[in-house]
Amino acid sequence: MTAPRAWRRREFLGTLAAAGSLPLLARCGGGPPPPPRWGRDAYRKPVRSRVAVLRAETYDAPLADLLRRGLRLCGVEARGRRVVLKPNLVEHDPAGAVNTHPAVVGAAVEAFRALGAREVVVAEGPGHRRDIEHLLTASGLLEVLRDARVPYVDLNHDAVRAVPLRTRCTALGRLYLPETVLGAELVVSLAKLKTHHWAGVTLSLKNLFGVVPGGVYGWPKNVLHWAGIAGSILDLNATLAAPRVSIVDGIVGMEGDGPIRGRPRASGLLVLGQDPVAVDATAARLMGIEPARVDYLREADAFLGNLAEERIEQVGELPGPLRQEYALPPRFAHLRAG
Fold first, then answer.
1. Is residue 274 part of a domain?
2. Residue 63 lies in a domain
3. Residue 52 lies in a domain
4. Three-state secondary structure of 122-149
5. How far apart are CA 251 and CA 328, in angstroms?
6. Mean pLDDT lowest for which of 26-30, 142-146, 264-268?
7. How many independent structural domains does the chain possess?
8. Domain CATH number, residue 131
9. Alpha carbon distance 318, 25 (integer Å)
10. What angle do CA 164, 168, 173 make, to 5 degrees?
11. Does residue 10 fall inside a structural domain?
12. Using CA of residue 136, residue 199, residue 241, residue 34, what is the dihedral sign?
């Protein structure tokens, strides 16, 4: 009797991906299983992920140098690429807790240019304000864009293309997405460290709601909310094909009734990496939240990235000393770690 043939690594990973296409949730009480929510073409979970945590006490810190160091630590390759930076731009924000701070956006522009990006564009589709000129001016971002001589694209009114979903976490079937994002060679989610009264937390995965055009889906992207926020987050992130980088602005975050009406919380840190699930899991832990209790993060761990600490290589600062307990919306008290 011959010994069984040893599996090659590629075959093993392929089998894992195929196994992942089985239903994630079994139907209670028996009966036929529900159709799979995702398949092999949506599987992009790496064996291990690297996440950088960088200390930055204020927005006056040398943020471009910090980001460049963190991007290099995480092995980000930007040379020759068209990079689209997608900040979180929501409302007039005098306390600096609602939007990705303009200083972080400007620093990201400088860092990616220093890494050899062929082109850098800032693009966002705000979900609340339709007057983009007012929002850019009131947020302070317009001045940064002018000083950096970087173009801005309003994704709410960009040309769009219908893209079939790679997953079936909602019943949407397809999304109309902006050509600016679809034409990117590197998409950077410049998120804010915030709690969220409907999703629990809003970090780099949820931040990509802003690429869905209001000109098609309305304000504040109600079609995604009606389809289910958690499922929409998964469908959108699985369908965007361009390589990704996640950067979370936690220099000043938001706790409580986020993402708009919460309280500022100084955390003095930036979190970044190429696996958005691992970045968001690390950011959640820094907020005192158990990421496996966040519905969309727990499901994303099956096929989009790594949630478990043993699969995440932390570089830069040790996360432990920077951890704080963010106040949570009452309905999400169960997210508290421990």
1. yes
2. yes
3. yes
4. EEECCCCCCCHHHHHHHHCHHHHHHHHC
5. 18
6. 26-30
7. 1
8. 3.40.50
9. 35
10. 35
11. no
12. negative
User: Tens of pLDDT along 103-112?
Assistant: 999 999 999 9
pLDDT of residue 96: 87
239: CB partners within 8 A, 6+ apart: 163, 164, 165, 166, 167, 175, 177
* Strands 244-255 and 200-202, bridge-based pairing: unpaired
Kind plus residue range of the DSSP H or E element containing 77: none
Dist. CA 267–CA 292, nearest whole Å: 22
The C-alpha atoms of residue 86 and residue 65 are separated, in whole angstroms, by 20
The domain of 318 spans: 46-335
Q: The whole model's pTM is what?
A: 0.90
Q: Whose CA is closest to 274, among 72, 13, 3, 15?
A: 72
pLDDT band at 129 (very low <50, low <70, confident <90, very high): confident
Residue 123, judged by CB atoms within 10 A of its CB (0-12, 13-18, 19+), counts as buried
User: Nearest CA to 59 among 240, 253, 308, 309?
Assistant: 253
Is the predicted pLDDT of residue 7 greater than 80, yes or no? Answer: no
DSSP letter assigned to residue 336 = B
